[in-house]
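Duplicate of #3305? Posting structure anyway:
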């Protein structure tokens, strides 16, 4: 009887599985739209324009870069600057020849330079607005979960930003940041200290048009929970502050609203967010993305504080290890077992099944960033 029930359950599972098929709704959107991602600033750094194509609905998400365009930037004084394609779909400026100037207007031009590209694109002229410096960047410790009889306290950090413009010239702001943190493996091995960097993946914008003073206080820029190991050792964040005009602010606001939605079938689609790039020879060709022109300022802080209850990717239960007597692995031992340390513990070797438990370069880099000791 038990065997019969088991066979019956298998048959039901197969029937149910055979009834499942992928549903891809029909839409009026083009299957592949040109996507433009670009930002030029008044800094003396390389400016990058990225071109790609969107993917049809239901397609596996992969990179789809667009090569073979002659990309140039012109200003309102008649100057033209050419960009170089360094990798497929990535076009960069020469920093010795070009950087933006506050008050100037800039236009992006995309001219086909290969048989596979047939359309000409151009952006609207974008004025570079001034941006004030960041007044202060600071953090406050947050109690995520108070201590109880059954668990210890858990803490994190909330990073805030203050800025103001006494000239009231910059009413629309956008921020991007790069996080860098140090992590240390629990074993005394050659590669036990590394660093990781990650760029922001959220949209941070704010406008001051509804208040008399162009001032922003305690803007909640980044929240670091206890579910990451960012705060275990030492952490740094570099924040870039950009100016915008009203049209670009509305673009980022709509994109922010889209990114915060659950993503149901009838939610706003990305193509509903208007771009400032258009097709010259065919107005029906839609474009996604934005050509941003902005003055930029930046500020960095370091955090080296005591936080409790933080995630530990290298805890004993995640980095299961064992010791073997003899100073070397026995012949024929499974090749998936990694030696953590033999030179430190003769006549024993410490072993693990996870390479990341003894080699920090699996996650990060051994070379500390140039700025890492600036806070000393």
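Output from current build:
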């Amino acid at each position: 009887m038990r065997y019969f029930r088991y066979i019956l359950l298998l048959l039901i599972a197969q029937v149910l599985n055979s009834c499942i098929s992928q549903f891809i709704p029909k839409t009026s959107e083009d299957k592949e739209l040109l996507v433009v991602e670009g930002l030029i600033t008044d800094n003396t750094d390389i400016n990058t324009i990225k071109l790609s194509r969107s993917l049809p609905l239901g397609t596996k998400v992969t990179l789809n870069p667009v090569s073979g365009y002659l990309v140039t930037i012109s200003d309102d004084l008649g100057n033209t600057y050419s960009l170089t394609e360094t990798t497929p779909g990535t076009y960069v400026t020469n920093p010795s020849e070009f950087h933006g100037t506050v008050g100037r207007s800039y236009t992006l031009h995309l001219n086909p330079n290969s048989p596979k590209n047939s359309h000409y694109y151009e952006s609207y002229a974008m004025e570079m607005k001034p941006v004030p410096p960041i007044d202060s960047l600071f953090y406050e410790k947050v109690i995520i979960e108070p201590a109880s009889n059954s668990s210890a306290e858990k803490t994190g950090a909330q990073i805030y930003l203050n800025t103001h413009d006494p000239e009231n010239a910059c009413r629309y702001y956008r921020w991007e940041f790069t996080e860098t943190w140090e992590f240390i493996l629990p074993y005394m091995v050659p590669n036990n200290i590394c660093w990781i960097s990650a760029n922001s993946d959220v949209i941070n914008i704010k406008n001051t048009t509804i208040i008399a003073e162009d001032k922003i206080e305690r803007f909640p820029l980044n929240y670091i929970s206890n579910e990451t190991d960012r705060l275990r050792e030492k952490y740094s964040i570099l924040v870039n502050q950009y100016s915008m005009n009203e049209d670009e602010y509305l673009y980022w606001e709509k994109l922010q609203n889209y990114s915060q939605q659950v993503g149901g079938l009838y939610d706003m689609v990305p193509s509903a967010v208007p771009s400032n790039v258009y097709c010259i020879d065919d107005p029906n060709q839609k474009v996604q993305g934005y050509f941003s022109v902005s003055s930029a300022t930046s500020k960095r802080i370091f955090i080296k504080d005591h936080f409790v209850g933080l995630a530990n990717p290298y805890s004993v239960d995640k980095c299961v290890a064992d010791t073997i007597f003899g100073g070397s692995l026995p012949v024929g031992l499974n090749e998936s077992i990694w030696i953590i340390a033999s030179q430190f513990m003769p006549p024993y070797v410490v072993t693990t099944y996870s390479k990341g438990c003894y080699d920090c370069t699996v996650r990060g880099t051994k070379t500390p960033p140039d700025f890492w000791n600036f806070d000393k």
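Confirmed duplicate; merging threads. Residues 1-13, 21-28, 262-268 have pLDDT under 50 and may be disordered. Residues 148 and 357 are 31 Å apart (CA to CA).
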